[in-house]
Amino acid sequence: RLSLVGSEMCIRDSPRTHQNDIVALAEQLGATVNLSFSKDDPFDFCVAKTVNSPKYLLARALGVPTATPEWLRDSAAEGEFLPLDGPGVPRGYRPPPFAGLSVCVTGHSQDERADIEKRVVAGGGAYASDLVKGACTHLIAADTTSAKYAHASRWDGVSIVTDAWVRACVDEGR
Length: 174
Known about the structure:
By secondary structure, this protein is an alpha/beta fold.
């Protein structure tokens, strides 16, 4: 079993009422909770529901373990922090690779689109055939010639990636 008494934990969960519940669980287990974050204010664990939050991305960049709120709830029920990996550990204790992401596709065949949709949805993300400003987080582009690509490249908040990125996320599990 994992002991994190005295550890610093970063929490990213919304809405605020859920975040307060998560903070209480972490504190019940002896962790100190840091709701702010920066690379200069280190933390030992990140609890996140989505993979596109600044806190989650900072945790990944720093090599800090990330876990779901379910992991923290189950840990509190057991009275100690449960392991995140290993035999018999539910895969659901780590955020799925596309949790909180909404993807759209351009330049791919119908079969390729169906395959991408299947992988994204299985990985916790949402798939949309239409590129919608403010809703789409990622455009999976086969080339740079489409109207979707032209629009997405001008919009803040849309990352343009390739199918290779999707495969790498699935292979890495994050």
